[in-house]
Amino acid sequence: MLYYLFTYLQKAFDFPGAGVFQYISFRAAMAVITSLIISLIFGKSLIRYLTKKQVGETVRDLGLDGQKEKQGTPTMGGLIILSSILIPTLLFSKLDNIYVILMIISTIWLGVIGFLDDYIKVFKKDKKGLAGKFKVLGQITLGLIIGFTMYFHEGIVIREKVQDSQFVKSHNILNAANYEKAKEVFAKEAVKSTKTTIPFFKNNELDYSVLISWTGENYKKWAWLIFIPIVILIITAVSNGANLTDGIDGLATSTSAIIGATLGILAWISGNIIFANYLNIMYIPNIGELAIFISAFVGATIGFLWYNTYPAQVFMGDTGSLAIGGIIAVLAILIRKELLIPILCGIFVVENLSVVMQVSYFKYTKKRYGEGRRIFRMSPLHHHFQKLGYPEPKIVVRFVIVGVMLAVVTIVTLKLR
Fold first, then answer.
1. Domains of the chain by residue range
2. Residue from 227, 242, 239, 211 nearest 330 by CA
3. pTM of the predicted model, to two decimals?
């Protein structure tokens, strides 16, 4: 909203300083600051309100140190994160940008699903919360919305390279003067595409349509049959992965902030024709506007960490965890870097796998030996380390260190091919 206001003031009255709102970097910085302020101020008020209303977490007895002390801690703190994302986005981004619109829809959609789950647990006193099938249905529906929009919306396009690799290499100079040269590297016309980025490969683009090339010459017409299910799978998996990671104070919040910052870098360079040329990556017109949303996301998670760090004053609940997982998944898909998720979101992946492995092995051994056996002392993985006697803060810090390492590796894949 402020973008349109100051654009009008600049054009109509030549208002001093209004021109800075044209710069993504300025608006992204303002989004971070605003989200931090909102999360810190609103967070304190919300915690007081939730405490007054006795909206406390019901903690199952898992035999973990410090678990009983968490009983009654206010939950549904994900509302802090959601408001700290949406308000700065509405204030500082271009609201006619299809990528921003999709991110706003994703945030609200999954936030509502998570809120319903928390509401049923807290106010209806039903520990099971929203039935799992309804959660999955909601995630699938969002996947359909994102998949169909990406495939059919005319504004979601890429600019493909038209010059050979030697020409591209000779023009890889980070200089504004080379803007025209960079434009020569990419096709003048933007095109619809189901291409994505493959890490570690030189010609690092995969067109999902080739997966159904065996169907005949017109296989590209049916690319949506493979593209949309992949989108649904990624959104569902990452959203649930973030939900499982939210088990100890500050873990999901801190790792999500690292992932969000990395995706912000990838979004910005993918939408900058000079950097896309320099790094020899896919150029996606108008995707740079997502930097404002991502900045708000990072600010919101860091601000929430102020109250969520050990010992937590508030839990995000499914209101926050489902939303941040879905946000990360949709962001990665929109910037065509979803195949980097196993690296960048390695913490989420491992947490997910630990649960799958634990449950599968328990069922297998129970069927074969008549007694269920376990791989880990407890799953998800962070509870395994708690059972080994590691204190929560140490587990979180070490997971964060691993998260930073994975983020660095993700960025490095842009040049390691």
1. 2-16+26-56+73-158+222-340
2. 239
3. 0.90
